[in-house]
Each structure stands twice: as structure tokens, then as C-alpha cells.
Specification:
Layout: H1 3-9, E1 24-25, H2 38-45, E2 49-57, E3 63-74, E4 80-89, H3 91-111, E5 114-119, E6 124-127, H4 129-135, H5 147-150, H6 158-169, E7 173-179, E8 185-194, E9 197-204, H7 206-219, E10 232-237, E11 243-247, H8 258-261, H9 266-269, H10 272-286, E12 291-297, E13 300-310, E14 316-325, H11 327-349, E15 352-358, E16 363-366, H12 368-373, H13 378-383, H14 387-391, H15 396-412, E17 415-423, E18 429-437, E19 439-440, E20 446-455, H16 457-479, E21 483-488, E22 493-496, H17 498-504, E23 522-524, H18 537-542, E24 547-556, E25 562-573, E26 579-588, H19 590-611, E27 616-621, E28 627-631, H20 642-645, H21 650-653, H22 656-672, E29 676-682, E30 685-695, E31 701-710, H23 712-759, H24 766-791, E32 800-803, H25 804-813, E33 821-825, E34 829-832, H26 834-852, E35 857-863, E36 866-871, H27 901-911, E37 915-920, E38 926-931
Parallel strand pairs: 33-35
Antiparallel strand pairs: 1-2, 2-3, 3-4, 5-6, 5-9, 7-8, 8-9, 10-11, 10-14, 12-13, 13-14, 15-16, 15-20, 17-18, 18-20, 19-20, 21-22, 21-26, 23-24, 24-25, 25-26, 27-28, 27-31, 29-30, 30-31, 32-34, 35-36, 36-38, 37-38
């Protein structure tokens, strides 16, 4: 026995100690006889024993938890010659486990409403006051009575089934259950089984269930959409095995769209093999059973769980499946199985290794178990290798620390102990603990360094899991969506989570005691009366009250905002039954109350709208097209009255031709869930009829909604408008024909006149000739303008590439303004008719000279998406800019202006898809901008 073993067992004289001298107990507290202890089991079986946890009683009466390993040493005949036993002190771990159990018990105590306990014979062994208040309505008491006698109805009920299943499987269960007459109440039940019986926590949730039912009926809309179901798929299906809902992020990884699945039979969505595996899950759900199946689809592994969906009577009306992608989980499970196999193989070879390092020679000798742990060849390790070979296998994050400990032990000839990670030959990381001591000669020089090493990987994993569990509990406290506040018995605040702090704001929970809260304002929500300091929920809880019927207060937060909070409270009592702590939960229900108010207002608005629906009617009908409700201003006047409609089928009320028009619309709403409208005739009037589906909370169509409106006057207006449009079109056609004819007839004499003026003899009056030519040119211009204004694009010739700069200069040559200046700052090409574009520029130039004088300056420049023409004339007043493009608008009527030039400019721009606007130029004149112009390269 080494010194460490003596310390653990409290043995000062190893030679006077025999195995089994110290009493030992297992984890259940049972005294373990000598023949069941590890060393005796090894002697009896010849097989090693690992990780046996025992509590050993020392000579001073104290107890210590040990993790014991025992392995045989066999002789040449294979018989057990001796037994080597190692022990590790795990007392701290066991204490932490006990503390965690106590914390869990305290947490369960905080959230308990009502509780009773049953033994393994189904006898009541305990029931608190709240349990007796809720279920012992006869006042006969519960303790000592048989469960099935008290609840005669429960034998074949869900409650009985859940209880028996929990006891058989030893798995806790939670469910909601409807307690029949005479209580007629809903309960939320949590049952926790053990070897000795069943512990049941429950509370009355009837009010909540009633609110949920009322909200579902009022909303009439489906609220269980699961679009963001993580890494999986949620579906709902009816008794025909057709999908009514398909959603979830899992659809991102498969070749199926949710919209394509909805409304389809499940066999039309999946391949045959997948459908065959899914069918039992679907059928079980519709039979009221939950069932799961694991399958492979598109190269990934899935677990599909089917559950029934029942109504308040417990009847199954649909089924739900939840499919989760477990590919990574399966890979982890396979990895863990492989790791477990490797661990078992290592354990068979020995979980404890020993070494001896001959320091001067640097020969490090180990057994096979030690060598394998460090990835060293066992045969070479038996002969001895350099210690550096083993140190190099230590995890890089731990290596420097371990090297320092080894150096310190060698330099001072002291004990050595280190806990670290190593990598074996396969690259696997294992946790080990190494203990040893350095033996030195009389001169203090190190000679040998023996020691032992144990694999503690499983223990480290257990510690990590325990630490993660603790962190999870702490995190749960912080992330709960409701505020939680804890105070001790004297009112000192112990803790408050972030939700509580955010609800109140400021430094309210920095107060040392709850009595300091009298400076915060609060009112009873139902009466508006101020809350006295002794009436706050925490004050009542610290007096021993269990506040299960919540207090509802209106509070004023630190920033002056008013909120409505619902507060529950529960005292935590010590072993003597005294209040040790108080716990309250605070739920912000401001939005919930506001939502309820808005919901009531919405319902009132809906009824008012239906009653006064203008010049029409509103109706609700069932799947048989039978009216269940009708409202509207024209009922009994233009349409049959409510007495004829409500309770009657639509086809039986209206004439055959009217019913034929609207029946497909009504049926599409209730049978296919489609909304639409149509027109029909009834009673000598025209009607527009709309129909839409009404859905329940599950998204199923349960009725149809129709709107009917009298559109007789609208139809008559539309008919007259169509007649007017037809007459205008005929008039436009005649006008266009006349314009073409007139242009043709005018061009002949104009052309002849222009020819004659060029052939006049030289002695003819030049001024008169020029005047005649200008007159003919003006007539020709007016012909072009008239054609554009009457025929639009049809008047324009074929487009070809046109240089805007060339068109600008050609147009300028025809302007009588010898002293005016043209500035061309554009070099772009467009596809257009050269004649008309040149005419556009000429109109703008003449307009500029007309209003800017003989010495006017005109600039043509480029815009990012077009061009502009600007002058320095007197400009166009802002109040006239919206009218300048109108036919007949002119400010130069006294000088022969017709008001057609700018109308022509705008019309031609529209022909080419350009936009035309007029603004003020930089020089104060007019600036005409043309945008949406498509520039092209020269061809």
C-alpha cells in the first residue's frame, strides 16, 4: 500500500490492514459485504473491475467516496496470484452531484402549484392543500386511499394510461387532461416516476383553455405555421392523407417545394419507398397514437415523428408529422460508438499504466497500457525510450505546464502530480492523471522517477457534463421570458433576472430590501386603487402565502411608462417549514390586454360593417351552401330578406340562372379554399358577388363568406362610356382620313408654287419672291405639323441613324436670324426620321428667336439620358409652362403665331418615346429638355 492509499483509507500501518477492514457502502447507501468488494470479485472471477464507486467509513467516523479499480496478476498457470487495487478520491464530485440534486429539488418546489404522491400500490401517500382543494371535492381526504377508487373514471382514461406508462418506463410525463363532471375542469399534469411510486404536480388551467378556445373562435385563422422549424419539416394532414400544411427549413435541402406538397396525397409527393416507410406513421397518428420512424431520403438521414391532433373532446381531426434531419446526429452517434469501442479495448488492456524513468540514462520504461496511451510502441517502451518521446504526445496546450512540473520534481526530488491530455497513435485525445515521486541519492541527484498513470477521460467528461448542466440552469434563469425575483426571509433581494430588470427599468432591484419598494408606484389593474407596500406579491409570499391566483397590477416603470403585469408567488420553506425565501414571477401582459381590447373593437367594427354594408349584403354559408348569417342594407328591398335567406340553401333561394352564375364561386371557396368574384342578374338589377373561404385555427375551411353589391348604375355608366368611346374612335378615324386627304391636296399646289418661284426670271421683284417662298414653306410646315398631330407615328417615315449635330445645323440654316448665335455641344446619333427631327429643332429655334430677339443665343447640349435646347430670351412664365404644349397656345398671335409648333414638338417626342419638359435656362430664357433618348453608334 503506497502513502496515497494510506491517506485515502485512513491507514497508518499498512501491515496491520486487511482488505475489507473499513465499512463500505454503495451509492444507494447499502453496506457492501466483503465478498462483493472489487478485490474479492477479482479473486473469484479472475476478471478486472473498473470504476466501482464506494463510500468508505474511516476510523475517525468520517466517510470518503472512492472510485476503485482492481486487476488480477496471473501466474504461469493462469491463476490469480495477487490483486492490484487503485483508488481515486471522488468525494468532491459526489458532493457537487448532491448539491445539484438539492438545487433541482428547490427549483421544483418553487414552481409547484398542487402536488400529491402515490406509492407503488397506487395509494395516496401525500397531498398538499392545493391538491385537496382542486380534486377532493367531496372532502373525504386523499392520503391512504386508492387512486382508482378516488378516480373511478380514470382507469381507462388518458390519465390512467399516462400514469401506468410512466411507472412502466420510469420516464417522467407531462400532459393536459380534462377532469369530467362534477369538476369539469382542465388540468396541466407533470408526473415523475421512481422505484417507490409516482410524484404528481398539477394545476388548474381551465381559464387558460377557455381563453384559448374563445381566441380561436374569434380569430378564425390558423396560427400554427412552422415556416422556421429548424433543420426539419412540419406537415399537417387530414383523414384522406392529404397535406393541408407543409413548412420548415428542411425543405431547403430536398427537391420538394412546400407549396407543391399542400393539397396533395402524401404518396404523390414522395417516392414509393419513402411513402411506404411513412404510411404507418400517418395511420398511427390518425388512430390517436404517436409513432416515429427513421429513414434515408436524398442522401440524408431523418427521423419522422407522427402525432395526432385532437379537438377539445379528444377526437382526432388531423395528424402532424415532424421530420428532423439527424444526419449529423447519426454521425456523432457512430463516432461515439467507435470511441466507446476504443475505450473498452483500452480498458481490457488495463486502464492504469506504470512507469519508471531512469533519469541519468534517460531511459523511460513503461508497461503496454501506458505506451499505447501515448502512441508509443509497447515493445520499445518495455526496453526504455527517451522521456521526450512521451512528452511529445502530450497535448500542445498542456505540454509546457507538464514539462515545468517534471523539471520541478526532478530538481527538488519531490512528489509529482499532473492532470493533462495526450494523443495516442490514432490521434485520439485522452485525459490522464499521472502521479509519482523522484528518488535521489545521498547527494541529492535524481536516480529514478517511478509513477503511475490513470485514464480519467470519462470522469472529465462527467465533470464537463455536470458543469454544463449547472450553466444550463443558470442560463434558464436568465433567459426565461418572464421576470423572476428571489428574496430571502428578511426581505433582502437575492437575485433578479434580466427580464425582471427590463420590465421595471432603472435600479429598482438595486434596493437592499423589498420594503424599499414603497417609493415605486403601482395600482390594482381591475380597480385602479394604489397598491400598499404590504400588498405587493413578494411581501405576501414572505408572509407564507402561495399566490397561485395571480395579482394583476398596473405599474409605472422607471421611464414613466405604464405596464400591466401578472405576478405569481411561492414561498420556499426550510426543513422546519419556515419561509426561507420568496420567489415571484412577473409576466408583462400589457400587449395581451391591448390585443384583447383591439380584438373586441375589431369584432364590433365587423358587425357594424356587415349591418350597414353599402348598397349590398354580407353572408356566411356552410359547406352545403346554406346561409347561416346574412346582413346588409338591401336585404328585404332589392334582395330577399333575412327570414328567407338564413337557414336556406343558396340555389333554393335564387332563380336558376342566378344560382348557376354564383354556385361555382361559392363552392370554390368552401371546397378548394379559393377566393374570387363574378357578376350576375337578379330582380332586374346587376350584381357583383364575391366569395372567400373562412378558416379555423388549424387552417381548415369551415364556411364561406360572400359579399354582394348592386352595380346596376355602374354597368349602365360603363355601357354609355363604351358607346362614347366608339363614337370618338369613329370621329378620330374620319379626322385622320380628312387630314391625310387635305395634306395630299395641299402639297400639290405648294410644290408647284415652289417650283414656279425658282423659275421666275431674274428681273422679278426679289422681295416679293422671297415672301411667296416663305409662305409656301410655312404651308408645308403646317402640313407636317397637322400630320403629326393627327396621325402620330403613322405619319413618320422609317428611322435611320441621324446625327443630332447635323440635324441641328440644317435646321438653323432655315431660320431667319443672321445676328443670332448657335452653340452646338452635342455629338450623338439617334435613330429617327431626318425631316421631322430637323423640323422639331427649327420650331424651337424660331421660338427662341421670336422671343429672344435677332441677337439671341441658342445652345443645344447633351443630358445624361437625352439633350436640351436653351435660349437667353424672355423665358416662359412658370404659370404657363404646363400649357405651352397645348394646341393653339401662343404668345405671338399678333405676329402670325399659330400655337402648333410646340404641340408638334411634344407629339413628335412622344412618337419616339422621349419625354419633353420646359424649365428656365441659366440665362433666364427657356430650356426644353428631352429625356429617355436612346443614343446609338453610327452605322
Amino acid at each position: 500500500m503506497n502513502e496515497r492509499a494510506g491517506e485515502l483509507l485512513g491507514v497508518s500501518d499498512p501491515e496491520a490492514y486487511a482488505p475489507g477492514d473499513r465499512p463500505a457502502y454503495d451509492e444507494s447507501g447499502r453496506l457492501v459485504p466483503s465478498e462483493e468488494r472489487p478485490f474479492a470479485q477479482v479473486v473469484a472471477t479472475g476478471e478486472p473491475v473498473y470504476d466501482r464507486v464506494l463510500q468508505v467509513e474511516l476510523s475517525d467516523g468520517n466517510r470518503r467516496w472512492l472510485s476503485v479499480n482492481a486487476a488480477p496478476v496471473l501466474n504461469d498457470d493462469g491463476d490469480v496470484e495477487r490483486v492490484i487495487t487503485t483508488a481515486e478520491d471522488v468525494t468532491d464530485i459526489k458532493e457537487r452531484e448532491r448539491k445539484l440534486e438539492d438545487e433541482l429539488s428547490e427549483i421544483f418546489g418553487r414552481v409547484t402549484d398542487a402536488f400529491y404522491a402515490l406509492d407503488d400500490e397506487w395509494q395516496f401517500t401525500h397531498a398538499n392543500e392545493r391538491a385537496e382543494e382542486l380534486i377532493d371535492y367531496r372532502g373525504e381526504g386523499l392520503v391512504g386511499r386508492d387512486l382508482w377508487e378516488v378516480f373511478e373514471w380514470a382507469t381507462d382514461s388518458k390519465l390512467g394510461e399516462e400514469y401506468r406508462t410512466a411507472m412502466e418506463t420510469q420516464e417522467p410525463t407531462s400532459f393536459e387532461f380534462y377532469y369530467p363532471e362534477p369538476l369539469a375542469a382542465w388540468y396541466e399534469v407533470h408526473a415523475y416516476p421512481s422505484d417507490t411510486g409516482l410524484s404528481v404536480y398539477f394545476r388548474d388551467v381551465t381559464d387558460r383553455k377557455e381563453r384559448e378556445r374563445e381566441l380561436e373562435e374569434s380569430e378564425r385563422r390558423y396560427r400554427t405555421l412552422a415556416e422556421y422549424f429548424p433543420n426539419g419539416i412540419v406537415t399537417l394532414f387530414d383523414h384522406d392523407l392529404e397535406y393541408t400544411l407543409a413548412a420548415g427549413k428542411g425543405f431547403d435541402d430536398i427537391p420538394v417545394e412546400p407549396a407543391d406538397a399542400e393539397g396533395e396525397h402524401f404518396r404523390d409527393v414522395w417516392d414509393e419507398d419513402t411513402a411506404d416507410e411513412l404510411e404507418p406513421v400517418f395511420e398511427a397518428a390518425l388512430d390517436g397514437e404517436e409513432r416515429s420512424v427513421e429513414l434515408t431520403y436524398v442522401g440524408r438521414e431523418w427521423v419522422v415523428r407522427g402525432v395526432p391532433i385532437t379537438d377539445e373532446r379528444g377526437e382526432v381531426f388531423a395528424g402532424m408529422t415532424m421530420a428532423q434531419d439527424i444526419t449529423e446526429q447519426k454521425e456523432r452517434e457512430r463516432y461515439l460508438r467507435d470511441a466507446k469501442s476504443q475505450l473498452e479495448a483500452a480498458a481490457e488492456a488495463g486502464a492504469v499504466g506504470t512507469w519508471e524513468w531512469r533519469v541519468p540514462e534517460d531511459e523511460f520504461v513503461t508497461d503496454a497500457s501506458f505506451a499505447k496511451t501515448f502512441g508509443v510502441d509497447p515493445d520499445a517502451a518495455r526496453e526504455g525510450v527517451s522521456i521526450g518521446r512521451f512528452v511529445s504526445a502530450i497535448h500542445e496546450d498542456d505540454r509546457e505546464r507538464v514539462e515545468r512540473k517534471i523539471e520541478r520534481a526532478v530538481e527538488s526530488c519531490e512528489e509529482y502530480e499532473a492532470e493533462y491530455r495526450v494523443r495516442n497513435a490514432d490521434g485520439d485525445v485522452r485525459w490522464v492523471v499521472a502521479r509519482g515521486h523522484v528518488e535521489c541519492d545521498d547527494n541529492g541527484n535524481p536516480v529514478t522517477f517511478p509513477g503511475a498513470l490513470a485514464d480519467i477521460t470519462e470522469r472529465k467528461r462527467a465533470e464537463q457534463a455536470l458543469d454544463e448542466h449547472r450553466k444550463q440552469l443558470e442560463t434558464l434563469f436568465e433567459v426565461l421570458p418572464v421576470g423572476v425575483v428571489v428574496a430571502d426571509a428578511d426581505g433582502r433581494l437575492v437575485e433578479a433576472n434580466d427580464a425582471a430588470k427590463e420590465l421595471w427599468g432603472g435600479d429598482v432591484f438595486d434596493a437592499e430590501c423589498v420594503t424599499d419598494y414603497d417609493r415605486y408606484r403601482g395600482w390594482w389593474a381591475d380597480t385602479g386603487d394604489p397598491v400598499a407596500p404590504e400588498e405587493w406579491t413578494m411581501a405576501r409570499v414572505l408572509r407564507g402565502e402561495e399566490v397561485t391566483e395571480p395579482d394583476v397590477f398596473e405599474i409605472e416603470t422607471d421611464d414613466g411608462e405604464r405596464r400591466i403585469v401578472m405576478i405569481h408567488g411561492m414561498p420556499v420553506r426550510d426543513a422546519d417549514g419556515e419561509v426561507a425565501r420568496g420567489v415571484v414571477t412577473q409576466t408583462d401582459i400589457t400587449d395581451r390586454r391591448e390585443y384583447q381590447r383591439q380584438l373586441e373593437e375589431s369584432e364590433r367594427r365587423y358587425r357594424t360593417l356587415a349591418e350597414h354594408f353599402p348598397n349590398g349584403a354580407v353572408g356566411i354559408y356552410d359547406r352545403d351552401l346554406r346561409y347561416t348569417l346574412t346582413r346588409g342594407a338591401v336585404l328585404g328591398e332589392k334582395l330577399p330578406g333575412r327570414d328567407r335567406l338564413e337557414g336556406a340553401r343558396m340555389p333554393e333561394v335564387f332563380p336558376a340562372h342566378t344560382a348557376a352564375d354564383i354556385e361555382p364561386l361559392f363552392r370554390a371557396a368552401v371546397e378548394d379554399g379559393d377566393a374570387g368574384s363574378t357578376t350576375t342578374e337578379f330582380g332586374g338589377r346587376n350584381w357583383r358577388v364575391w366569395a372567400a373561404p373562412l378558416r379555423d385555427a388549424d387552417g381548415d375551411v369551415f364556411a364561406g363568406l360572400s359579399f354582394t353589391q348592386d352595380i346596376t348604375e355602374q354597368v349602365e355608366r360603363e355601357r354609355k362610356l363604351e358607346e362614347t368611346v366608339e363614337k370618338l374612335e369613329e370621329s378620330n378615324e374620319r379626322l385622320e382620313s380628312f387630314a391625310s386627304m387635305l395634306a395630299h391636296e395641299l402639297r400639290n399646289p405648294v410644290t408647284i408654287g415652289q417650283i414656279y418661284t425658282r423659275q421666275l426670271p431674274d428681273g422679278t421683284d426679289a422681295e416679293a419672291v422671297e415672301y411667296v417662298r416663305e409662305a409656301f414653306d410655312r404651308i408645308e410646315d403646317m402640313i407636317e405639323v397637322m400630320l403629326i398631330l393627327t396621325r402620330g407615328r403613322d405619319a413618320v417615315g422609317a428611322s435611320s441613324p441621324l446625327s443630332l449635330a447635323d440635324a441641328v445645323r440644317d435646321a438653323w440654316e432655315g431660320v431667319d436670324a443672321v445676328h443670332a448665335t448657335l452653340d452646338v455641344a452635342i455629338d450623338e446619333v439617334v435613330r429617327a426620321d431626318e425631316t421631322y427631327v430637323r423640323h422639331l429643332f427649327r420650331n424651337l429655334f424660331e421660338n427662341a428667336v421670336q422671343h429672344g430677339g435677332a441677337d439671341a443665343t441658342v445652345r443645344v447640349g447633351r443630358l445624361p439620358d437625352g439633350f436640351y435646347v436653351a435660349d437667353d430670351g424672355e423665358g416662359i412664365p412658370p404659370e404657363d409652362r404646363d400649357d405651352v404644349f397645348e394646341v393653339g397656345f401662343t404668345t405671338a398671335a399678333s405676329e402670325g403665331g399659330t400655337g402648333l409648333g410646340l404641340a408638334f414638338v411634344e407629339e413628335l417626342a412622344e412618337v419616339y418615346g422621349w419625354t419633353c419638359d420646359v424649365t428656365e435656362s441659366e440665362a433666364g430664357g427657356a430650356r426644353f429638355e428631352f429625356r429617355n433618348v436612346e443614343f446609338v453608334s453610327e452605322e
